[in-house]
Each structure stands twice: as C-alpha cells, then as structure tokens.
C-alpha cells in the first residue's frame, strides 16, 4: 500500500510542480514510506464527529467532575510529578471558573495540532531547510529587529528608571498575599 500511495503522491506532485528537482524525486522514491490508513468514514456525520473531538475539546470533561455544590467543585486530575497518580482537588466555584477560563483560546487560534514538518519538535529544523530549497524570489524576507535588554526599573511612559519593586511573585501557582491598592496605601501609612 505504501508503494501505491508513494507513486500516486509523486505523480500528483509532478503535475502540480513540473519544475520540481529530479534529484528530490529520486530521493523520495528510494525512501520506504510508512502509510497510516484508518477505516474510511461512513459518511459526513462521522467526519464531523471525528473532527469535533479535536476542534471542540474542552478543558475538563464531565466524567472528571466528581462533585459540585453551591460553593465548591471537586474534580479528578493526574499528578505527573507523582508518577501520574489520580488525585482529587476541591476548589471554590470562582477559582474553578477562573482556571477553566484560562483554557479558552483567543479569537483566531485553532485547537488542531500540527504534525509532520509543522510539528513543534521538527519545525525548527524543517522550516529553515524548506526555506533554503525555495527559489530566491519566493523566499520570505524577514527583518530581524534589535531588542534592547529588559530593564524592570524603566518606566514605559517617561523612559526613566523610576519603577519600584513592590513584590516578587512566585514562578508557579497563584500568588499568595498580594495587597490591593487600598491595602498597599494603608501599609505605606503604617511605615
């Protein structure tokens, strides 16, 4: 099956790109291709159902929510730091909603992952190699801008070093003990 697929794919490639390099075609024919074929879909409904599993996945499925009363939500999760053991967590309702909302994608983002040359692990190598093989006039011209080193004391408005560090937040988890504006003013008065 892989040989048939390879031949049909290369024939279509030659028809679409007649100027494709003959050395590349020969190199592709020498490789043994691995073809992963699933059972065909039974109709348009099954295609929509299949794609829907990837495009409309939610942050947490119903079977993971164990209990919900008026104030808290209990759900199960896997703790990969402890060998992927299943645990349960109880959160206040608003904290659960806050964490759930963090998984809502901004407009224009898609949920379908990229595979092959666009996968996260290979695109750093594949895209420069592809760009190198494109003819000179088709290559994208990318301007590299110089980025100045970040100075946390530099005010973005007046461009002077007038900023003060009030508190350093932890790298992970929700910040503990952050003062609101009013609390901070009261704190300053007490100094």
Task: Describe this structure as you would to a colleague.
The protein has helices spanning 2-16, 22-30, 44-55, 93-101, 123-133, 181-190; strands at residues 65-68, 72-79, 85-92. The longest helix has 15 residues, at 2-16. A three-stranded antiparallel beta sheet has the order 1-2-3. It is flat, with a radius of gyration of 27 Å. With 191 residues, it is α+β, with helices and mostly antiparallel strands. It has a domain at 59-119. Strand 1 (65-68) and strand 2 (72-79) form a beta hairpin. The relative contact order is 0.05.
SSE layout and pairing:
Elements: H1 2-16, H2 22-30, H3 44-55, E1 65-68, E2 72-79, E3 85-92, H4 93-101, H5 123-133, H6 181-190
Antiparallel strand pairs: 1-2, 2-3
Structure at a glance:
The protein is built from six helices and three strands; from the N terminus they run αααβββααα. With 191 residues, the chain is α+β, with helices and mostly antiparallel strands.
Which descriptors would you attach to this protein?
191 residues, alpha+beta, three-stranded antiparallel beta sheet, 6 helices, flat
